[in-house]
Amino acid sequence: MEWLIGLQALLQATVRMAAPLTFTAVGETYGERAGVINIGLEGLMLIGAVTAYAVAFASGNVWLGVFAAGLAAATFGVLFGVVTITLGANQIVAGAALNLIGLGLSSFIYRAFFGSVTNRAIQPLETVKIPLLNQIPVVGPVLFEQNLLVYAALLLAPLAALVLNRTMLGLALRSVGEHPKATATAGLSVIGLRYAAVAFGGMMAGIGGAYLSVAYANQFVENMVAGRGFIALAIVVFGRWSPLGALWASLLFGFTFALQLRLQAQSIPIAYQFLQILPYVATIVAMILLRGQSAQPKALGVPYTERT
Asked: Where are the domains of the chain?
């Protein structure tokens, strides 16, 4: 019976660890399906994390912090769009710059506003138990005893898949990433659709970062995203540019995060540094296994102009 309790705790942690990855990967899936790759997810998550923490601390309202995080990261997503979509700059270089901006800006904001503050605690998000469903053996506590942001992440993927695959908006976004010239010929705005996609992707990355500071750690730590933005990029490929695929891949990588923490807690005779690299090793292995099997959008990373 003890092993069952341990398995339940591991799976609960898996779902919690997968939530920020799901938010970020689903948002990036939309951006890449529209033809724009943003490797600056790490920076956007950091901006979201520090914004959420600062606003939640100042206002006493965690949800206001989450909203502000999404808005702030969406703003930087639009700025990324200005550089790459309007000005036609290299998307990889612009994304790398965004990572550096996010790292530096988040550290500056935190030190400027909290350098002299001793009590930095915020009210954490409470676990919400769904009656009856949480009584299902093993699965119940795993899926139905989580905070509201986790539920939002689990619902986001199927909703995003529905919009992407079953609506005219989704068809337009997919066509922009495959044949932008044909989309323009049909009378749709390629530029406008790409801006909408990168703004949505930025907002989701910001909420993913907000989750880390206000729903997971309940504090902000410099560079606390710790590579999750890059893992989210791998998840998009691993999930084959599908929101539902991103959800399942996020759960897989969430499991590696949860497993390494549990193995550290067991005090097994392995240096903790080796356990900490487990999620990143899994990322490399996944990318090796998927080599040559990707079905990325044809216009991914290709700037669009009226002469394209």
From this structure: 2-115+131-289
